[in-house]
Amino acid sequence: MPKTKAKRVVLKLSGEALMGNLGYGIDPAVAKSIAEQVKGVHGKGIQVAIVIGGGNIFRGLKAASEGMDRATADYMGMLATMLNGLALQDALEKNGVHTRVMTAIEMHELAEPYIRRRAIRHLEKGRVVIFVCGTGNPYFTTDTAAALRAIEIGAEMVLKATKVDGVYSKDPVKFADAVRYTKLEYMEVLKNKLKVMDATAVSLCMDNSLPIVVFSIKKEGNLKLAVEGKKIGTVIS
């Protein structure tokens, strides 16, 4: 189980989380809602780092499956995460939260390059840090980037924000008999190929005893409950 009231966390946001009910792109109202939830947690003295995906703009795996070179598709997906990171930074700073965007692919005019010690210092100074461009390497997902960055900066848990309220035995949207798990072990996720995070990300968390909390970001207040170690969503440990 995650510790009560973690002091430093990594929030993993999918690009689709910013899309809301739109078919594409970024819904400003959703970005604002997420920013307000992060502000509520940050205001309690919790150090928050965010890893964001880019699926609302471009999905590398989908493009690769349709014939595009996989590495090229993945790099395009990384660039999409930069757009999302800047949008979220804007929403946070409009809420009075000092924010830094750090990128795994250098783009000096837009964001700082990712340097582990600098990222930790930003967190210690009370800034929210948004990590974009994944790991900077093709063939690795932003889930893996979230696990890696969490381990690097000494976070106490990874908070996987989704559209559903936890991990299910199968897709709850398609199957009415889908069962929600409240607790899982890492090996259960890997053996049963549960679609939570990719296997590399789960393995990294398992090897470093880093808990994963899967919860719905759509309901306001859930992020605060997850950080406080309250019973919410699914805990993988």
Description:
- The protein has helices at residues 15-19, 28-42, 60-65, 70-94, 116-124, 142-153, 186-191, 199-207, 222-227, and strands spanning 8-13, 47-52, 99-103, 112-113, 128-132, 157-162, 167-168, 180-181, 183-184, 212-216, 234-236.
- The strands form two sheets. The protein has a nine-stranded mixed beta sheet with strand order 4-3-5-2-1-6-10-11-9, sandwiched between helices. A two-stranded antiparallel sheet has the order 7-8.
- Helix 2 (28-42) crosses helix 4.
- The protein has one domain (8-236): Carbamate kinase (3-Layer(aba) Sandwich).
- By secondary structure, the protein is α/β, with parallel strands linked by helices.
- The mean pLDDT is 93.
- It contains nine helices and eleven strands.
- It starts with 7 loop residues before the first strand and ends with a strand.
Keywords:
alpha/beta; 9-stranded mixed β-sheet; single chain; 9 helices; Carbamate kinase; two-stranded antiparallel ribbon; 11 strands; 237 residues
Quick rundown:
The chain is 39% helix and 19% strand. With 237 residues, it is an alpha/beta fold. Helix 2 packs across helix 4 (70-94).
Strands ordered across the widest β-sheet: 4-3-5-2-1-6-10-11-9
**Low-confidence parts lasting 5 or more residues at pLDDT below 50?**
none
What is the oligomeric state here?
A: single chain
The overall number of domains is: 1
Helicity, in percent?
25-40%
| Alpha carbon gyration radius | 16 Å
CATH architecture: 3-Layer(aba) Sandwich
At the fold tier of CATH, the topology name is: Carbamate kinase
What series of H and E elements makes up the topology?
Answer: EHHEHHEEHEHEEEEHHEHE
CATH class placement: Alpha Beta
- Our count of helices gives 9
CATH homology group: Acetylglutamate kinase-like
Strand content range: 15-25%
Shape: globular
Q: Largest sheet, if any?
A: 9 strands, mixed
Global mean pLDDT: 93
Q: Output the structural class.
A: alpha/beta
How many beta strands in the DSSP annotation?
11
From the N-terminal CA to the C-terminal CA, the straight-line distance is 6 Å
